[in-house]
Amino acid sequence: MKHSFLDQYSDRNSLIHRLDPRTKLVTTFLFITAVALTPLDGWTSYALYSVILAIWLVLSRVPVSHVLRRSLVILPFVVLIAIFIPFFREGDIAGSYNVWLWQVSVTHSGLAVLRNILIRAWLSILSLILLTSTTRLSDLLKGLEQLHMPRVMVMVLSFMYRYIFVLVDEVMRMKQARDSRNFGGRRWWQIRTVGNMIGTLFIRAYERGERVYAAMVARGFDGRSRTLKRLEFKPVDAYFGLSLTLLVIWGNIINLI
């Protein structure tokens, strides 16, 4: 498994890459908050947010195909959760359908809510993908820690990202060993074998976690995230943060005019 699937393009040199991780974290959170607070008929605001993301993408020099491909992987989970909203939202009925013994109705207001949820989710997902694609995860965690995020949460995120690859590699080795022994037989035998693999994987993960913790304590681990790179807030960070803040505020004011 590739160990850079999340921050694959974080080693590039662009204006966005050179920004302080804290600046990118705060501006991304501000952008997502503004998108979430946009009213149902805020099409002008959505258009402005899309332009902001397009400029952000051009300045970052991250391939458009990479960003769109990542967003389309996450978006179906949003659809799966929000697809039932048009059937339970009250309002004018847009259509009725017979499902076995039940008759379900779709309302116009429900469709409007569903449409806005998908737009908001997609814009938010794109901003998060740009954040992770232009920032090394170690710098991102360092920025979260300096923004006073609970240290325990920072450590959990760090260990999760660092050792998920070890866990996946262990699963692939177990699968290869299983296939080399001519894995087959009846359905019940296959289910039992997979269950044994899951139990073995849990035990191995627990034992590895104990060994890693003992090794870290022996090396003086005190719960802090340390990197060789020092974070530095520069004037360009202030200009970028101020510009994005003004654009986001303008996007919300447009709906009031």
Explain this structure to me?
This protein is mainly alpha-helical. The protein has one domain (15-254). It is 70% helix and 5% strand. It has ten helices and two strands; from the N terminus they run H-H-H-H-H-E-E-H-H-H-H-H. It has helices at 15-18, 21-36, 43-60, 64-82, 85-88, 108-133, 137-146, 151-180, 187-218, 235-254; strands spanning 93-99, 102-107. The chain has a two-stranded antiparallel sheet with strand order 1-2. The longest helix is centred in the last third of the chain and has 32 residues, at 187-218. The mean pLDDT is 80.
The secondary structure category is mainly alpha
Strand segment tally: 2
Beta fraction of the residues? 5-15%
Strand order of the largest sheet: 1-2
| Contiguous runs where pLDDT drops below 50 for at least 5 residues | none
Task: Name the features.
single chain; about 260 residues; mainly alpha; two-stranded antiparallel sheet; about 70% helix
Give the SSE map.
Layout: H1 15-18, H2 21-36, H3 43-60, H4 64-82, H5 85-88, E1 93-99, E2 102-107, H6 108-133, H7 137-146, H8 151-180, H9 187-218, H10 235-254
Antiparallel strand pairs: 1-2
Helix pairs in contact: 2-6, 2-10, 3-6, 3-10, 4-6, 7-8
Briefly summarize what is shown.
The chain has 257 residues and is mostly helical. It has one domain.
